[in-house]
Structures are given as structure tokens and as C-alpha cells.
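RECORD TYPE: protein structure
NAME: Sugar ABC superfamily ATP binding cassette transporter, membrane protein
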Amino acid sequence: MSTTSAQARHRSEQLFPGARVVSLVLVWIAALIAIAPLVYMVSLAFQSDAEATGGKAVLIPSSWQWVNITRLFEAAPFGRFFLNSVLVAGLITLSHLIFAPLVGYAFAKFEFPGKNAVFVLILSTMMIPFFVRMIPLYVKFSQIGWLDTYQGLVTPFLMSAFSIFLMRQSMAGIPDSLVEAARVDGAGELRIYRSIVLPQNKPALTVLGLFTFVFQMNEFLWPLIATQSEAMRTLTIGLSSFNRESFTLWNLTAMGSLMLFVPVCALFVATQRYIVTGITMTGIK
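PREDICTED:
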């Protein structure tokens, strides 16, 4: 197949001699368009107040204002906001990584009455917008006193149909003969799950953890209505509130946005080698 692809590519290059150059130019243009806002955000975060509010776009600050980091934490409790976001996103991600593989394994390797109907029912919940669930969740959490608490922020997202689908698709690719051989050798289901199934699904688990963490770090709507005190705000809500209260301090707002971006980017860089493999294994195109 690789030889055929190479021959097809060679023929296309003969028909269109400049196709490779044009493709590279288009890719670089797209990359520059995608990265330009990030570059400007980094530049804006380290600009002085005069440069940030001068009315002209400054790509390279005349003097890098590292003091903006200190000023940001003095202007608002961004350390608390960041801690809340990481704690909430981390707990939700941990829940998905613990329970979604278990459910996915059951759907992929076990037979029980109504399995397909239950799986379709779970998938159908993906079509229900969060706005539909938001009001009853708010009312119920208000009644039990869970508003403005960590459990109130975490509980609605402890599991998702997407996570179950991702794990089911990944584990369906494990040969049934491998699982059956382990059962014949006397291995229990927990041993099979721990020693055979999970090690072969590391890429898919990494993708699941990355997607879940990034989504929860960027979650805005539910923390907005479920938190009331400043101490319980997540980073997205803290940034929004800070922007309303100090809308002229664009450099500090950009610095706060950089706080939201850096951990997500670091996590992506650390796990990027698993992403393509994980998505390919799960059959998501």
C-alpha cells in the first residue's frame, strides 16, 4: 500500500510540478493564521499598560514586563481560581479514567440481555444539550445545598456517553481469543482487565484523559451558575469577572488567559505521541 501511495504521489507531482510547493505554502499560511492569536496573547501578556492600551498592536514589547505575573495575582486570587480549575478538572478526569474503561469493557467483551439497547440509550444522551439538564440540576443542587461547592461542580460531569463510547470502541479491538485464553488459564476477570485490557488501551486512555481535562478546564456555563463566592470560582469564571471589573488591563487579562493555556498545552505536548494512535484505535475519523 505504501508503494502504491508513493507511485500515486509521484504521478501527481509529474502532472503538477509545483503541487508540493503550493501545499507547503498553504500549510505554512494556515499554521501562521492558527498560531498568530497565541503569539499576540503572549506578547500582550508581557506588555506595559501604556503599550497594551495605546491603541496600536505591538508584536514585540519594548520591555518584557515580567512583573505582570505578580500584578495578576495581586489584582485577583488567580492562584485560587487556578487551583479550583485543576482540582475540578482533575477529579472529573480521574472519574472518567476509572469508570469509563470498566463500562466499555463490559459492553465490548460481555454478552447480556439488552446490551445493544442499553448502549444505544447511553449514546442517545449525547444528543441532549446540557442546557436541558442545567435547570433541574440547579434546582436539585440548590435543595441539597451543593451549590458553590466542589461536589456541585464535579458531580454533573463524573461520567459521559462519549467516554463510554471511546472505551468500548477501543476495547472492541482486543482479540476475543486473547481474553478467552486468559480465562482458560484461570485468570479472573479483574486480572484480565488489569493485566491485559488496560495495558493495551494506554493510547485510548491517554486520549480520553486529555480530552476530558481540556474540556473541563474550559468549562464555563455550569461553574458560572453553580458558584457564588469568589473562593469557588474556576479560572474561566475568574477571568470573565476580572475582565468585567478591569477591562482596561488587557495585558493582565492576557496573562490570566496564558495561565489557562499553559497547563493544557503542556499536557498535550506530554501526550501527543499517544493521540494519533488512540484516535486510530477507537475508529474515530
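COMMENT: The radius of gyration is 24 Å.
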